[in-house]
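Changelog-adjacent note: as of this version, every example in the card shows the full chain rather than a window. The one below runs 173 residues end to end.
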Amino acid sequence: MRAGTRSSSTAARSRPSSEEAAYDGAKRVQGRKLHLAVDTLGHLLAAVVSPADVQERAVVAQLCAEMQAEVGHTVPAAFVDQGYTGAAPEADAAQRGVELRVVKHAGPRQGFVLLPRRWVVERTFAWMANFRRLDRDYERLAEMLRALHVSAHTMPLLARAMRDQRRGARPRP
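Full-length structure tokens:
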């Protein structure tokens, strides 16, 4: 079964020149949010950039549409964090053929708790953190920020393909 994982991260602005930048009250950061949909291996399927004050629920329809268009409508389920809960996001996702499965904490916790399926998208954000250009949001246009994340995500994939080719291994699907 193919499944996707979704999460968002807020990129801090280096300068307030973009009209799309806003204040994220929860993280206390001025900037934009990057919403990612990745497969179960952490490979990028879709990316959406929104102002930081927009709730995660508001971009479910756009993210599902981009993800399903990319993979040919073959993702039946998506594991999401609690920011994507609610009846409206569920209806938006169901309209595009995706069932949202919310991964919740199992009660009181102390310190870091590894959640099933959620670590995959967090690892993808960590891969993106290796690129200094993505540390802060220097871009004026949201589409440029999205394009930089997509192109940065191809670097580990290309490195893995080149390493496999040098070893004489079969290419991965």
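Structural remarks: The first helix runs from residue 60 to 71.
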